[in-house]
Amino acid sequence: MKKTLLIAVATLFITSGTFAQKVWVVGNDPVNFPVSTGIGAGPDLTVYKDGLGIHTGTVTNTNMGQVEASHISSPKIFGEASYPNRFKFNGGGYSGAATSDETPTVNMPTQRYLTITVSGNGTIKVQGISGNSGETRRLFITDGTKLIGTMVYPGGSNISEETVTYTGPATTLYLFTNQAINLYRIEASSYITASVNQVLADKGISYNGNEIVNRDKIAIEIYDVLGKRIAASNNNISVSNYDKGVYFVRAAGSKETLKFNR
């Protein structure tokens, strides 16, 4: 009975996503992205804002995802859009990140990154400005294992829009920088909603591509699609040696399930 129930749950979560174009106007959305000093103190803090994953990773300070009201008197303009605020990474996405990095030294970011779940082929568009008017900076998009594309933001004070095309199956895309870049608008053409991930994120549980992060040290279990329990722990669980496939994380005190792919 338990195995049958788990298979039914697995099927539900595989098929229950909502597929659509999605836009996050991070520079002018007082409901989802109000002015703030950041999402909070890390490490391993994850917050979802309207489906956009915002992650501190290893950093312990609070300013990842800061929304700064820096253009109230003279909003930044791109086309017909007006942006009184800017969304800030406040640093690079991995240890040792440097402005000179034309490609990332890692494909799985370790700090200060965003995640977007996509259903397959599509584009990611980002409007932004280098965090230093005198430096060209880069935003990298990966699937956790390989570089999908690079967005280049030259020094200056004007917003530019960059586009990266993703071709492949449903996955999580990671957005991170070589140094601070300020964002105003993000668009994903093949976004897929996965609300259960957000529920477990509220419990401090997230997947970073290599392990299940269990920030609050609660009891968690991992199952495969056949309902077989693979692992159980009150700590982080490494999945780097798991076979390719779909897995599910259950948390104590929750009926929700986090689905992840290897």
UniProtKB/TrEMBL annotation:
Domain annotation Secretion system C-terminal sorting: ranges: 212-256
Protein name: Secretion system C-terminal sorting domain-containing protein
Organism this protein belongs to: bioreactor metagenome
